[in-house]
């Protein structure tokens, strides 16, 4: 690679940006990452809070050691241990109408599932068969609720379970009236609850990426805002830093920033000295614009107790109607809390438009505490530590009309020979807008840059 070494500037230190930087640095390129904050990882940041290592939300690695996150780590020669592996088959429990049961993952288990009537179980199996026979791209802008109506799925109990599946699939507000059926069918076609947690939290993944970048002479620059990309003859030539005219040359530029922030960047043509508006770029697709993006939001409660929370091997409960996910991260990873203590992270989606309604948010926290107390009586009152968070973005977008996989932007801009996009909102194999898209887009992006560097 030494003869094809390129200067690569990556804007944004989230999962997509860091993964791209780590791969390209290992491949021999001169890489610089610019992160406007003082920490790496974006929404997947995992920090020490007192005596506890706490995630910013409930983040998991889909397919665990067989998933996209581990594919990136393998490419850079790094290895981490997973508390739950892909082959473990660790399934969550469902809590509905004060009853609890294991999530069914096979034909016989579906037929024996006690939280639905026998007729609903048959309807559920019918839905799964239809999903497996459906080509997702043929569904167009049909929503999940429209698809269910088309297939005569009317039972309230079954629809509540489907909403919970939507929540698990996308970690967003489970609104089946807006989320695309095509995205849901793709999820059903490969449905597995094989999510894994890296031992030591997501910090382990972020640290490995950072270490690899530095080991291969890459640079990470914190606290520097990049908002201007300079182009010439439809090719990026560099960036300006902190809007002060400091120029940095680049052979390629990778935008690893939230898609909703793309339009804040200034593209300046050196020849004409004019700004090029993002609205002129078909790369972002005619049906897509940042104004259409609606990010998912949630409230979160972390708490620590002395008594064991879950029995046996289970570590997750999904409450159905309303959707709430309760996860016990210390069940299989004792490094996250002091010896003898156990953590519970509880997540509940709320509508994006309600975030600024203080009364609504306060009532949502009250409701969430009641749900915790119903599932685990006395747990909150006996807690050693409690943290409450309001998250304005859990994943990058709802997969609704205008944000299906076909509408999402590609890794490479068609208008420029050397500007790329990575992140959870990119058109690449993934579920919804989850972290596997960030890792997968990083692999796609690094492959494209390597191919171009050999031309």
Entry summary:
With 455 residues, the chain is α/β, with parallel strands linked by helices.
Task: Provide structural commentary.
The chain is of the alpha/beta class and 455 residues long. The protein has 3 domains: 2-42 and 60-81 and 202-286 and 403-453, FAD/NAD(P)-binding domain; 104-189, Guanine Nucleotide Dissociation Inhibitor, domain 1, CATH 1.10.405; 297-391, Polyamine Oxidase, Chain A, domain 2, CATH 3.90.660. It is 27% helix and 21% strand. It has helices at 15-26, 68-75, 107-112, 118-133, 144-150, 156-170, 181-189, 203-215, 358-375, 435-453, and strands at 7-11, 30-35, 46-49, 52-55, 93-96, 99-102, 219-222, 226-232, 235-241, 246-249, 252-255, 266-269, 274-276, 297-305, 316-319, 324-327, 342-350, 385-391, 419-421. The chain has a 7-stranded mixed sheet with strand order 6-5-15-16-17-14-18, with helices on both faces. Strands 7-2-1-11-19 form a 5-stranded parallel sheet, covered by helices on one side. Strands 10-9-8-12-13 form a 5-stranded mixed sheet, with no helix packed on it. Strand 1, helix 1 and strand 2 form a beta-alpha-beta unit. The longest helix has 19 residues, at 435-453.
């Amino acid at each position: 690679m030494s003869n094809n070494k390129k200067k690569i500037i990556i804007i944004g230190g989230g999962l997509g940006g860091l993964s791209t930087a780590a791969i390209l640095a290992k491949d021999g390129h001169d890489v610089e990452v610019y992160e406007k904050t003082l920490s790496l990882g974006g929404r997947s940041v995992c920090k020490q809070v007192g005596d506890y290592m706490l995630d910013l939300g409930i983040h998991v690695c889909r397919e665990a050691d067989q998933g996209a996150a581990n594919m990136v780590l393998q490419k850079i020669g790094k290895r981490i241990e997973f508390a739950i592996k892909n082959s473990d088959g660790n399934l969550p429990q469902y809590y509905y109408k004060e009853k609890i049961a294991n999530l069914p993952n096979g034909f016989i288990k579906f037929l024996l599932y006690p939280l639905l009537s026998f007729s609903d179980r048959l309807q559920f199996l019918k839905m799964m068969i239809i999903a497996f026979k459906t080509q997702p791209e043929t569904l167009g802008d049909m929503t999940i609720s429209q698809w269910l109506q088309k297939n005569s799925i009317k039972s309230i109990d079954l629809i509540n379970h489907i909403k919970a599946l939507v929540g698990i699939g996308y970690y967003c507000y489970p609104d089946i009236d807006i989320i695309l059926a095509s995205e849901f069918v793709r999820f059903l076609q490969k449905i597995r609850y094989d999510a894994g947690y890296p031992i030591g939290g997501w910090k382990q993944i972020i640290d490995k990426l950072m270490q690899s970048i530095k080991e291969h002479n890459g640079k990470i620059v914190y606290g520097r805002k990049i908002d201007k990309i300079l182009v010439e003859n439809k090719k990026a030539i560099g960036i300006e830093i902190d809007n002060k005219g400091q120029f940095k040359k680049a052979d390629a530029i990778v935008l690893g920033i939230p898609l909703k922030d793309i339009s804040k960047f200034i593209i300046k043509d050196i020849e004409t000295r004019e700004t090029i508006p993002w609205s002129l770029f078909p790369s972002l697709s005619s049906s897509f614009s940042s104004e259409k993006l609606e990010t998912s939001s949630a409230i979160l409660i972390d708490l620590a107790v002395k008594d064991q929370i879950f029995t046996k091997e289970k570590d997750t409960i999904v409450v159905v109607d309303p959707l709430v996910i309760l996860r016990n991260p210390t069940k299989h990873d004792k490094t996250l809390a002091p010896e003898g203590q156990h953590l519970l992270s509880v997540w509940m989606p709320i509508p994006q438009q309600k975030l600024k309604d203080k009364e609504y948010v306060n009532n949502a926290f009250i409701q969430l505490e009641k749900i915790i107390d119903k599932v685990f009586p006395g747990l909150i009152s006996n807690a050693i530590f409690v943290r409450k968070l309001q998250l304005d973005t859990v994943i990058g977008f709802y997969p609704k009309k205008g944000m299906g996989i076909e509408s999402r932007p590609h890794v490479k801009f068609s208008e420029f020979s050397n500007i790329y996009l990575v992140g959870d909102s990119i058109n690449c194999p993934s579920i919804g807008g989850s972290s596997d898209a960030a890792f997968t887009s990083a692999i796609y992006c690094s492959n494209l840059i390597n191919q171009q560097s050999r031309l």
